[in-house]
Amino acid sequence: MGHTFDELRAIVGDRGLISSAEELHTYECDGLTNFRVMPRAVVLPNTTEQVQAVVRICHRERMPFVARGSGTGLSGGALPVENGIVISLARMNRILEVDFPNARVVVEPGVINLDVTGRVSPQDYFYAPDPSSQSICSIGGNVAENSGGAHCLKYGFTTTHVLGLEVVLPDGSLVHFGGKTLDAPGYDLAGVFVGSEGTLGVATKIILRIVKRPECVRTLLAAFPSTNEAGAAVSDIIAEGMLPAAIEMMDNLAIQAAEAAVHANYPNCGGLLLVELDGPVAEVDALMTEVKKICSSNGAPEIRVAQSDAERALVWKGRKAAFAAMGRISPNYIVQDGVIPRTALPQVMSEIERLSQAGGLRVANVFHAGDGNLHPLVLYDRRIAGQEEAAEALSSQILELCIAAGVAPSTHCSFRIPRKSFQLLASVAKSPVNTCRTRPNPQGSRNVIDPRRWTPQLNPKRAACIRRCATNSWRLWEMRMCMRRLPRMPWPEFSRSW
Amino acid sequence: MHAATAADAVAGVQPKLVIEPGAERELAEILRLSNEAGLAVIPRGNGTKLGWGNPPTRADLILSTTRLNEIIEHAWADLTVTVEAGCTIQRLQETLAQHGQRLALDPLWPEKATIGGVLSANDSGALRLRFGALRDLIIGATIALADGTLASSGGKVVKNVAGYDLPKLVTGALGTLGVITRAVFRLHPLPRNTRSFSVAAASAEEAKRFVVAVQDSKLAHTSLQCHFSDDTSPVSDILFEGTEAGLAAQENQLRDLAEHAAVSEASRSTWTAREELWDFSDRPCTAIAKISILPASMARTMKLVENIAKRQQVRWRALVYATGLGWLRLEGKPEALRGALHELRSELEAQHGSLVALHRPEKMPAFDAWGSAGDALPLMKAVKQQMDPKSTLNPGRFVGGI
């Protein structure tokens, strides 16, 4: 092993190799902190060539590796593999090219999401995908996870904004998917790569699309007696033929937490709706009037429109801090990430409420109402015996509930893979109070080569983790088995020896 | 099932049999049997784009999806639709319109083109600028694989970020990886009102400057396209959708932006201009290609086309969208057409662009439809090998002989 380390050191330099136990602790997990694996070493390459050289050694030595960016993910994307190394892309954080006439930006994977917008905002452009962690998460990590954000309802996910990729394959070879121009001849491998959790390669260069800022942005807050009325208002907005830039919903517990953490000045109510419209002033003004009417007619006693950019920023700060804010009202919590048809919301919410009462645990809900992305947060106290297990059980029951609501049984197909359920199971995250603050993240990028997750070959240890999280695991196993029946991606094989 | 006629020929290759299964299971079973028997299968919808791609190296039977044409579920409140592959775009749009919604896509010949065909050929029109391509609209698909497996991927929810994105893989794969039997799309509301304007330009450079200026402005336009040809000056069309108040405001902004250029109201029909390129009054002497360039190199590319066309003595006409995708029609002697396409492809590929030949006259000397797929071609071949190891589906029609 010593010899291999010498080789790695020769590639990335003394300061590019971390192998002391105390320094490695930083890398033993990402935002999914209840799973920890100590890597053998961490390498920090500076260039594509260095990534290739490191990957070639891993390939030769059959040493598993996981690429890592900022480590903010809540689904364990950067969780190291036992006896493997971590390739941190933190030092590859250059914005290589900005092309305004064509609205393209070329970046290295370690560039922070918000820094792309920062770089192009003087010319009034922005990079649209805006995950809540955008001030610290990296583009490479966004690519691996196909990150969304509150505004993906209108602007789409990371995949819509990635036009091309330079990728180091697991054998160290370099390939290019897509490009600066659209519809490159051949299969859409860029489309397959984005969201593949780093299982297909390490992106070392990413061509992004940027978007011109709309003429105006207006944000409305409407307080409803419960999430049911708020949900009905969302349906009416959609039925009226509007496509807001964002529609977010929070229940009372989530509002309390956000208030406690950032004093967003939210009204105290059972269901808070946040609707953002953007576009030409005349257009937005006309539609905002309609949204207000719809909210009133669905029983919102209080409706406010943010009057200034500062006020608007505060509204969003509250929403984006909602997860971390749970730490203010509960010592521990588990966050889940599910997608349900929006129309199933009232039914799912009342069922969650029932499960919450039966389990004796509080559940807060944050909901991207436009696209049906539900984040139930199960609150508990680890110090009380049995609560952690109860929380895990409740969490998995909610997961089952989302799956049942989202996936129609199909009689036509031999099988059906609810992809969202993979996301669900991967996102069963427990957080000690506040991951962002209690555990400083290493600077830089995030990009995951993960040879185990979601590839047909499932790491037994990982499966055990998932089983522990989701006690009712049969369903999950079934899904794994379905996945196995799909054609394997013919990527150069990762070593199976470990 | 019936015997194939001359009308069923695929780019000059005559298949023997046409089979029209009535259920997904049936289709998958036929595919499995064909695969086992070593027959080459050509999936087909209504055949509007059957000539796209290279001629197949083999063609035994045509597997038609036209009877699989049900609109399974329009979950309008969730803004999604599940539809079978054989349904035409127009019938789907009519159904969606009952709830004020649409699939935000304007492919060629919507009255005939089917969901499966449009997906496989990755055909998009002017709406792509605002709403993205099929890859951005598709959220789930059921695919019959060569071995008879019916694989479903994705779901019925708008946000789908878990697992490998197989719907994207089959979109634009020209039916070489599997036969799409159904798809799930995210939908958009129908616009309340629309206004279209045409803006004249004295030169390609001026047209390009207008396009770049509009793209860099605060206008919320839905589509933007430019017409070029060898005998007329360029014209740009711009489409706005929205409330009356919003449209009026944007018209004023557009007029300010256009400065001295003549702005006139255009009819809705200008947005089907792409179909006019397929006017085959002189079929043996017409070639049509799709080009992909950087939007800001639009003028330079048109200059290039002009020079090459002069040298090769061919006439030309082009429609270029603000996305950088364009459609080029060339008329001339078959050898000259090949020469022009070849030269233009070399130039575009050198600038990271591409040229895909969609229609080539029969007499034209052999010319690969696709051009270079870059250094990812070995991986693409490996994907094909994995999903269709016996090359049952559309053999030889895709990039690099796939």
What does this structure look like?
The complex is a heterodimer of chains A (498) and B (402). Chain A is α+β, with helices and mostly antiparallel strands. Chain A has 3 domains: 95-212, 2-Layer Sandwich (Uridine Diphospho-n-acetylenolpyruvylglucosamine Reductase, domain 3); 216-320, Alpha-Beta Plaits; 332-432 and 455-485, Alpha-Beta Plaits (2-Layer Sandwich). Chain A is built from 19 helices and 20 strands. Chain A has helices spanning 2-12, 21-24, 48-61, 113-120, 139-145, 152-155, 158-161, 189-193, 227-239, 252-262, 281-297, 309-320, 322-329, 345-359, 387-406, 419-426, 435-438, 460-469, 474-485, and strands at residues 17-18, 41-43, 65-68, 85-88, 95-99, 104-107, 125-126, 162-168, 174-178, 202-209, 211-212, 216-224, 246-251, 271-279, 302-305, 332-335, 338-339, 363-368, 373-380, 429-432. In chain A, the strands form 4 sheets. In chain A, strands 12, 13, 14, 15, 16, 17, 18, 19 and 20 form a 9-stranded antiparallel beta sheet that branches. In chain A, strands 5-6-10-8-9 form a 5-stranded antiparallel beta sheet. Chain A has a 4-stranded mixed beta sheet with strand order 1-2-4-3. In chain A, helix 9 packs across helix 11 (281-297), helix 14 runs antiparallel to helix 15 (387-406) and helix 15 packs antiparallel against helix 16. By secondary structure, chain B is of the alpha+beta class. In chain B, a hairpin with a 3-residue loop joins strand 17 (315-321) and strand 18. In chain B, 57% of the residues are buried. At the A-B interface, strand 9, helix 8, helix 9, helix 11 and helix 16 of A face strand 9, helix 6, strand 11, helix 8 and helix 12 of B.
